[in-house]
Amino acid sequence: MTNHWVDIKNADVILVMGGNAAEAHPCGFKWVTEAKAHRKARLIVVDPRFTRTASVADFYAPIRTGTDIVFLGGVINYLLTHDKIQHEYVKNYTDFSFIVREDFAFNEGIYSGYNPEKRNYDKSTWDYERGDDGFAKVDPTLQHPRCVYNLMKQHYSRYTPEQVEKTCGTPKDKFLKVCEMLASTAVPGRAGTILYALGWTHHSVGAQMIRTGAMVQLLLGNIGIAGGGMNALRGHSNIQGLTDLGLMSNLLPGYMTLPMEGEQDYEAYITKRAAQPLRPNQLSYWKNYRAFHVSFMKSWWGDNATAENNFGFDYLPKLDKSYDMLQVFELMAQGKMNGYIAQGFNPLAAAPNKAKISLGLSKLKWLVIMDPLATETSEFWKNFGEFNDVDPAKIQTEVFRLPTSCFAEERGSLVSSSRVLQWHWQGAQPPGEARSDLEIMSGLWLRMRQAYREKGGKYPDPILKMTWPYADPESPTPEEIAMEFNGKALADVTDPVDKTRVIAKKGEQLASFAQLRDDGSTASGCWIFCGSWTQAGNQMGRRDNSDPTGIGQTLGWAWAWPANRRVLYNRASCDLAGKPFDPTRKLIAWNGKTWSGPDIPDFKADEPPENGMNPFIMNAEGVARFFARDGMNEGPFPVHYEPFENPLGYNPLYPNTKEAVSNPAARVFPDDRAAFGTAKDFPHTATTYRLTEHFHYWTKHARMNAIIQPEQFVEIGEELAKEVGVVAGDRVKVSSNRGHIVAVAVVTKRIRTLTIEGKKVQTVGLPLHWGFKGLTQPGYLVNTLTPSVGDGNSQTPEFKSFLVKVEKA
Ligand SMILES: Nc1nc2c(c(=O)[nH]1)N[C@H]1C(S)=C(S)[C@@H](COP(=O)(O)OP(=O)(O)OC[C@H]3O[C@@H](n4cnc5c(=O)[nH]c(N)nc54)[C@H](O)[C@@H]3O)O[C@H]1N2
Ligand SMILES: Nc1nc2c(c(=O)[nH]1)N[C@H]1C(S)=C(S)[C@@H](COP(=O)(O)OP(=O)(O)OC[C@H]3O[C@@H](n4cnc5c(=O)[nH]c(N)nc54)[C@H](O)[C@@H]3O)O[C@H]1N2
Ligand SMILES: [Mo]
């Protein structure tokens, strides 16, 4: 989240789109209720289904799955053509005035630089024109035909209300009503927030859907203000912590990135990431990348990381490609992997195209399961009759099950969607032979190191030179790990201006990432967590919920990254002179000498507004980007592409294209493409989702949950039910080109027939929670049906839009 849970109460308009907060985030949803009760906030829900969130909304609009960019692009078009934008904000704090290179182009769904064989882009034309001074050129009058404002206006001009109705199936009047409600927040003093989750991420254009939402928020001046923001409602209780700590295959802690194979040179690696400012007088905060990165390597390799060996850069793996879930299961299916550790992960149930997952697992030599429960994956080789499709006689995979404890049986910190690191304490002892993940991983690591010591290996240094500074090496404590993530001074750290003044003594915990150095004198496992465990102790354990201004800025409650800041980009809540746009919901202001709170300023604390530094200091341009100059793989402005399995067979926005029907830069492996079906055989559009009564695949092991939601069901609309001759309670067979499931039909008014390009489209709703382990009725796994195709940036699977056929079983 750019903002935080409690801050939702400050919103005047709340758009829940691409998520179902009332059911999947019921505790956090109370802040929506607060906003409605105390601010008369209007809640809008846009979802293919009339969800329980929709049932308490002020306004609901239906949408076809996978078409949110058309809808949001339509909102952008509406805001621009009706002049419903926060002018002062957009003019000063975004890239509206930046001039784009002349050779940048966009034609029928494809941007300049496309390579159809490789299915990727050379992004060099997606950039600004530079002046002789090296800075980006701007035209503050916004007259230049290639300034971002004009390009964007042109780009979204075809996203009209009529087009939205035809492509999304959202009636035009309903769409316009949503536009009007959102537009009411374009004035200073009114705030709108967007809450989203998987309804946006689980698409082959998921990251771009989120981007389009962020663009709407920028036009309205809703980023950086109380009650505003782009708020990702994260899934598992610590999934925010997972990405923060770099547990994605291409990341390092604190959103630093691993080097690629071609990046063997340390200076080049750093220069590429430590962006120089693109405008005069601008701070580009990533210029500190080297300090964060060196401190990170010091934390891993200690005294073995020296200036002479680039602090151990050679020890870091260099990637030939990203090793995300889809990639890993592709390699496994090709027989290119020997072993796999599934730690707190049930891929047979959770990953797309189950047949491919079981094929891959069957080719492994060994599979390690670390889990408190017996998962489907841990018994994938057993033959569960009709629910499983493997022949155990043919499978050699050796499976090791290591029982772990569960979160309530250990202490440590969890990072919430609010970016708040909250310490929690152990509630119970783990049962039986269960051990904590920390202990199991340490045991594996120590034995691996021993094996390298004894037998050598191709390049044992990264492992042999790593520090392991824990009192009990077999079982490091959560406190030791947390202190290491925060980091400490390895030598006296001095003030950069007054070099005689020591700000952190050797051995002391650091107070903030501003104290990190690039000379090896500091260590920090995760720079954004620096400040969470200081000399004053564990900040994550704090429980002071006083809120001096009443807007939910409880800075004494636990600790938020970065720097205990609760609202990111909060400099943008003030005008150029440093006065809050909305004094009643002030986050920070310039008091003549410094920027000060109730929040921690997201800015240089003593930078006078008149110097002209811009608020978005994590961007080299200092302003927010409508034009994604780098970063996004399918282009700088989001474009509508159809889901890979779609009911139309063409792209209604760009009807003449063959290359750009679906995302031209999405990742598709050849065998997966061969497994796609078409609307001729699979005429119904399906989406998958969760229910309040279950948590994924674990709570079916709990008796109460198993009783309240005992069995797989499928939601279909009344018209589809009639069409296929099914009444509520009948058993239906749902098939895709990859397999089928059988389940109970729930016939509902909550899902309606949509008219898309003059054609009727039926949506099928598939909750995902059941399987063949646990106390619920044994059944199929929903991911038997889903296609294996990844978003162009995140490689998140397209779980939310694919084709099936429903028939009476
Ligand atoms: N009770 C419970 N709570 C949970 C979980 C759980 O298993 N059970 N899981 C947790 C996890 S890990 C996560 S990631 C979160 C997920 O939280 P959510 O994303 O809110 O959960 P989902 O139910 O997967 O999907 C949300 C909604 O997206 C809609 N949708 C599908 N396709 C589209 C589309 O193309 N456009 C739009 N606008 N909407 C679409 C679906 O109809 C559904 O209502 O929930 C977390 N909370
Ligand atoms: N079709 C479809 N597929 C989906 C989704 C969808 O919406 N539609 N959602 C996707 C999403 S967002 C997610 S997050 C995944 C979820 O997929 P998974 O993460 O694989 O599923 P879970 O059942 O939440 O958790 C996996 C295991 O973690 C174990 N566990 C719990 N606590 C601990 C612990 O402390 N240590 C260890 N080692 N294990 C523990 C649980 O017992 C459980 O078996 O599913 C994805 N798959
Ligand atoms: Mo999730």
UniProtKB/TrEMBL annotation:
Residue span, Molybdopterin dinucleotide-binding domain: 687-802
- Which regions form coiled coils? none
Q: Which cofactors go with this protein?
A: [4Fe-4S] cluster
Keyword vocabulary terms for this entry: 4Fe-4S, Iron, Iron-sulfur, Metal-binding, Oxidoreductase, Periplasm, Selenocysteine, Signal
Pfam families listed in its UniProt record: Molybdopterin, Molydop_binding
Query: Mainly localized where?
Result: periplasm
Q: Which GO terms describe its biological process?
A: anaerobic respiration
A single MF term (Gene Ontology): 4 iron, 4 sulfur cluster binding
InterPro entries tied to this protein? Asp_de-COase-like_dom_sf, Formate-DH-alph_fdnG, MoPterin_dinucl-bd_dom, Mopterin_OxRdtase
What family is this?
Answer: Belongs to the prokaryotic molybdopterin-containing oxidoreductase family.
The record's PANTHER family line, in alphabetical order, gives: FORMATE DEHYDROGENASE-O MAJOR SUBUNIT (PTHR43598:SF1), TUNGSTEN-CONTAINING FORMYLMETHANOFURAN DEHYDROGENASE 2 SUBUNIT B (PTHR43598)
One Gene Ontology CC term in the entry:
periplasmic space
Q: What is the lineage of its organism?
A: Bacteria, Pseudomonadati, Pseudomonadota, Betaproteobacteria, Burkholderiales
Where's it found, cell-wise? Periplasm
Which CDD domains does the UniProt entry name for this protein? Answer: MopB_CT_Formate-Dh-Na-like
- Molybdopterin oxidoreductase domain ranges (all copies): 2-377
State what protein this is by name.
Formate dehydrogenase
